[in-house]
Specification:
With 320 residues, the protein is α+β, with helices and mostly antiparallel strands. Helices cover 55% and strands 13% of the residues. The strands form two sheets. Strands 1-3-2 form a three-stranded antiparallel beta sheet, covered by helices on one side. It has a three-stranded mixed beta sheet with strand order 4-5-6.
């Protein structure tokens, strides 16, 4: 019995290391088969929208067959079935208790997966509200900028200062082109949504789309580290969303202001933290003078707020 307890503890530790529900359940079946010396083991789950069925009994006429119900809050969601060869000894009371422990683990795996989906949905919904608020604030500032320029043009025309009016109109036209490009980039960014794919794949996908649309190469480097391999379960959903948006905003800022020829996105681990660096070879800027040219800029403030919301800290290193 002590040997079985030690083996069961090792099985629980092995299950805790699995982050994908299908792999965790497969691992659970394999471990239950091995620990209970079964010739066959299988696990079946019913879909969430299926009608609830009464749980089967964990006893059977055949003492070498063991069927254990899997339940979530008294709701039957599946079964764990084990079978021994005819020549093997029958299942004991201790074996049945161990099978119930595996069934409980299976229920926890399923529950965690469902909770993860719910949390991810909430994170996406919160992100939609955040983007809507940012777009409202940004468009309001842009319209104010356009209105100021238009009034200036009108005043210069009244004063018959045609040359200065043309300069103001040129700035207004350039602003309109920038806004158009920003909207296109925003739409492209929204199409890359956090889901079942690793975050590094989503960042690489956006980088490819951005490079194609703006003729600005973006390289993405993700080290071959188990913690950074991109398993979506390694980062909380909210952190995945914010990380993706921070990278998108950073790259967009480079296009808007840096006059760069290349951009790189590099990730590396620093202890328990993930460090993501976005670097360009552009003209740089004096940090204390950002935004003094009259054109509204929200990127740095937005990124700082996003990073802070997930316990991150942005660092800027730039000079002309």
């Amino acid at each position: 019995y002590n040997h079985q307890l030690v083996s069961l503890h090792g099985a629980n530790l092995a299950l805790m290391r699995e982050t994908k529900v299908d792999l965790a359940l497969k691992r659970l079946v394999d471990l239950s088969k091995e620990l209970l010396a079964a010739s066959h083991a299988s696990l079946s789950l019913q879909s969430e929208d299926a009608d609830a069925t009464p749980p089967p009994s964990d006893t059977a006429p055949d003492e070498r067959a063991l069927t254990t119900p899997i339940a979530l809050v008294d709701t039957h969601i599946g079964t764990l079935h084990l079978q021994r060869a005819p020549s093997a000894p029958p299942f004991t009371t201790v074996d049945r208790e161990i099978a119930r422990m595996f069934a409980t683990n299976a229920a926890l795996v399923v529950q965690n997966d469902r909770l993860y989906d719910e949390v991810q949905a909430l994170a996406v919904e919160a992100e939609r509200h955040s983007l809507a608020r940012e777009m409202h604030d940004s468009l309001a500032q842009v319209l104010s900028f356009v209105n100021t320029k238009a009034q200036a043009v009108e005043q210069y025309l009244r004063n018959e200062d045609i040359e200065t009016a043309r300069q103001q109109m040129a700035e207004l036209s350039a602003a309109a082109r920038d806004v158009y490009r920003d909207i296109r980039e925003g739409i492209a960014a929204l199409r890359v949504e956090v889901g079942d794919r690793p975050v590094r794949e989503l960042i690489a996908e956006y980088a490819g789309q951005f490079a194609e649309a703006n003729r600005l190469p973006v390289t993405v480097t993700w080290p071959d580290d188990e913690r950074l391999l991109g398993d979506t379960h390694q980062l909380p959903p909210a952190a995945e969303v914010q990380l993706l948006r921070i990278v998108q905003e950073s790259v967009s800022n480079v296009r808007r202001h840096a006059h760069a020829s290349t951009v790189s996105v590099t990730a590396q681990s620093e202890g328990a933290a993930l460090l993501v660096c976005i670097e360009d070879d552009g003209r740089g800027f004096e940090q204390g003078q950002v935004g003094r040219d009259g054109w509204p800029r929200f990127g740095l403030q937005t990124m700082a707020e996003r990073a802070s919301s997930i316990g991150g800290e942005p660092t800027i290193d730039s000079r002309p």
